[in-house]
TrEMBL record:
It comes from Paradesertivirga mongoliensis. Residues 35-158 form the Gfo/Idh/MocA-like oxidoreductase N-terminal domain. The keyword Signal applies. Residues 167-298 form the GFO/IDH/MocA-like oxidoreductase domain. Pfam families: GFO_IDH_MocA, GFO_IDH_MocA_C3. This is Gfo/Idh/MocA family protein. Transmembrane segments: none annotated. Keywords: Signal. Residues 1-25 form the signal peptide. The lineage of its organism: Bacteria, Pseudomonadati, Bacteroidota, Sphingobacteriia, Sphingobacteriales. InterPro entries: Gfo/Idh/MocA-like_OxRdtase_N, Gfo/Idh/MocA_oxidrdct_glycsds, GFO_IDH_MocA-like_dom, NAD(P)-bd_dom_sf.
């Protein structure tokens, strides 16, 4: 690692690009009562939320867990032990529980809409995992239901909207650090069949729901939706045209959702092309997120990122010892870290925001309107890939556009 001085060029980098360690704490504590919550869906994601929630004991108290599968309830009970913890197999009993203020919905995608609409009507605060709904029509209907019950918070689990790293990247884009952005390259790859062990063959579709179209939006919904959602947010946009392709190219095991997909999204107003892909048979790139502009490139991981200027070796003046300037560490390939240290897991920040939104009665950044926009994009990707057609963003999709 090479230590370089501060770059004196207001149009490219300034010391304000970097957050202090205090700001890295993010989501400063908002005083208020504990929120009593229930976890509906105790698979990997539901249990993951419970583990993060244990780090925030002053904000949340888990009062109930719910799952249709006994072995998942038993696993969840190992994560969170309390005399007051109730177990349910029917989510409607959770919604009837007056000791529950908020529900976290981490079920298979096809159940998101049903449970969320009933939770809204039961006047619970709702944290609804991504993707918000199985299809666009469900998203539109959920908005209409939520309008009738405006007093409670609904946050969608695109947790990178709550991360200080991703906030800073949005600020950099808004401030023009990247210049004119034309290309976005995203991948979320793994090398594994995505299967979970099944206690009994009769439970195959319930346990491995991600592999069946009846329950799942596949790789686009489960992985790529995060990156698509961030681009929607960072540029205040949505794709105008989508072409996606995919196949069951490696795991010939009876699954229905693709194990290999690639989607190209055209953002006409911005003059951008977004490339979003995922495979289950190669993990070399893992999580890859690059935003490329005429002045620079941002390369992101989940909890850290680098900025690469296009002008470092030609137009920029390097000045040492600028009083008050933040020192920048450049790595061997010419990149500067966006933040001085990695951030926490994005879910930690998202839970802090959910709590703050409830206590202060504000709409979270990842809300029912932004969740709708991303759910539409995912729906169009799946329609395109399964039908081998180009899908267009229709004017009527914008009737609920709020962010």
């Amino acid at each position: 690692m090479k230590r370089r001085g501060f770059i004196k060029n207001a149009g490219v980098l300034t010391s304000s690009m970097f957050l202090s360690n205090e700001l890295l704490a993010a989501g400063s504590f908002v005083a208020g009562p504990k929120i009593r919550v229930a976890i509906i869906g105790c698979g990997d994601r539901g249990v993951g939320i419970m583990n993060v929630m244990k780090q925030l004991p002053e904000q949340f108290e888990i009062r109930a867990i719910c799952d249709v599968l006994d072995f998942r309830l038993q696993n969840a009970l190992k994560v969170y032990t309390s005399r007051d913890l109730k177990s349910y197999k029917d989510y409607r009993e959770v919604l009837d529980d007056k000791a529950v203020d908020a529900v976290f919905i981490a079920t298979p995608l096809n159940m998101h809409f049903e449970i969320a609409q009933n939770a809204i009507r039961a006047e619970k605060h709702v944290y609804l995992e991504k993707t918000m709904t199985y299809n666009a029509n469900q998203a539109f209907e959920l908005i209409e239901i939520k309008k009738k019950y405006p007093a409670k918070v609904l946050q969608v689990g695109h947790q990178y909207r709550s991360s200080p790293l991703y906030y800073k990247v949005k600020e950099m884009i808004d401030a023009g650090y990247l210049g004119k952005v034309t290309q976005i390259d995203c991948r979320w790859d793994r090398n594994g069949n995505w299967r979970r062990s099944v206690p009994h063959p009769s439970l195959e579709r319930q346990v491995n729901w991600r592999m069946y179209k009846e329950y799942s939006g596949g790789l686009a919904a489960e992985l790529l939706s995060h990156q698509i959602d961030f681009i929607n947010w960072a540029f205040n946009t949505q794709p105008d045209q989508i072409y996606a392709t995919g196949g069951i190219d490696f795991y010939k095991d009876g699954r229905e959702t693709f194990d290999n997909i690639q989607a190209t999204l055209r953002y006409e107003k911005e003059g951008m092309i977004g490339n979003f892909g995922a495979t289950c048979s190669n993990k070399r790139d893992g999580y890859l997120f690059k935003i490329k502009g005429s002045k620079g490139t941002i390369s992101l991981l989940m909890n850290q990122g680098m900025f690469y200027t296009e002008e470092l070796n030609s137009k920029l003046e390097v000045v040492d010892g600028v009083t008050g300037a933040t020192k920048i560490t450049w790595n061997k390939d010419g990149g500067a870290p966006i933040l001085p240290e990695p951030t926490k897991d994005g879910t930690w920040y998202a839970l802090k925001e959910f709590y703050s939104s409830i206590i202060t009665n504000k709409i979270p950044d990842s809300n029912i309107y932004t969740g709708t926009k991303t759910a539409i994009a995912v729906d169009l990707i799946n329609k395109s890939s399964y039908s081998n057609t180009i899908q267009n963003w229709l004017p009527e999709y914008n009737r609920f556009d709020r962010g």
